[in-house]
Amino acid sequence: MIRxxxxxxxxxxxxxxxxxxxxxxxxxxxxxVNWTSLANFDDGSCxxxxxxxxxxxxxxxxxPYGFPDMLIPDDNQMTVxxxxxxxxxxxxxxLSKNNSLSCAGCHNQNNSFxxxxxxxxxxxxxxxxxxxxxxINLGWNTSFNWxxxxxTLEEQAFEPVTNPIEMHDTWQNVESKLNNDSNYFIQFxxxxxxxxxxxxxxxxxxxxxxxxxxxxxSKYDKWRKGEVQLSLSELNGYAIFNTEKGDCFHCHGTxxxxxxxxxxxxxxxxxxxxxxxxxxxxxxxxxxxxxTPTVRNVEFTxxxxxxxxxxxxxxxxxxYNSGGNYSTTIDPLMxxxxxxxxxxxxxKNDLVNFLKTLSDNSYINK
Length: 366
Known about the structure:
α3 (153-162) crosses α6 (199-211) and α11 (313-322) crosses α12. Strands 1-2 form a two-stranded antiparallel sheet. A two-stranded antiparallel ribbon has the order 3-4. Helices cover 33% and strands 6% of the residues. 37% of the residues are buried. It has helices at residues 2-17, 80-90, 153-162, 171-179, 182-192, 199-211, 219-224, 232-241, 249-252, 277-281, 313-322, 345-356, 361-365; strands spanning 22-24, 27-29, 35-40, 46-50, 262-263, 290-291.
């Protein structure tokens, strides 16, 4: 009897010393020593995540042939978790004031993450004044936006959310919406090991996703690897593109098909409606200069130029063939102003056919 009484006392002491479930933010955490409670959320859930399981998987970028190493910030190294989180945020309309417009709303994958519209309309039905840039191989760009107003992808991703003619929200409001989503809360915890979703980590995730948008699987790329043959017309267009005859390669050279620079390519003779880089630098010599876009996937990214004035590649080629318009800031590389390239109709067609070999169908369909 004494023995059983002793067992009973020991058991009673053990259970009486057991830690009561910890209540944090209204959630009962019965494993408070090993788990961090993640609060009650708008969806009625009460989820928690193991702090001992925080571990990310590096997202490996293989540098394509002819490209330099990608420019990745030390404080935003790419992970599988970060890229996936960024993809979800890129497609989430809750980043806008009325939950109606996502990044993908203006950067459609079918158009190589550009827009088929000359201008896009924001959440307040205000039309923009520039064509939505295509998002291709951004990890190798040294500035962003047509006017170079952002120097990093993270900096650029801050802009549309608060822009009054785009998403027109506040970061405080966006943070509140995402913090009240239990799935996002857990994903941000697992990706960045943070307890509160803030704008800094939102744009970091979006930037990681955008750096993952790599396009190097066109017919041209397969030709470079000896896997396919180009037609006679395409080869002739390649020669025109890469010689003084077409003079495209000066701005669209290297395997990236862009130069990370700004040019006035003779669209207007003066009285510029958009000063481009000049608005950013304040230097009149930069007026009407715009960032060179890559011509990879150019078949998918019309309309063309910063203001979407040309609907077709044929119109673009004809602009250069005509020589463009002289102005005081026109680029010295526009050597045929007033003269034109004087390409024949067949040569213009060949050049367009070569440009279409840069189309990467897997990029717009994956």
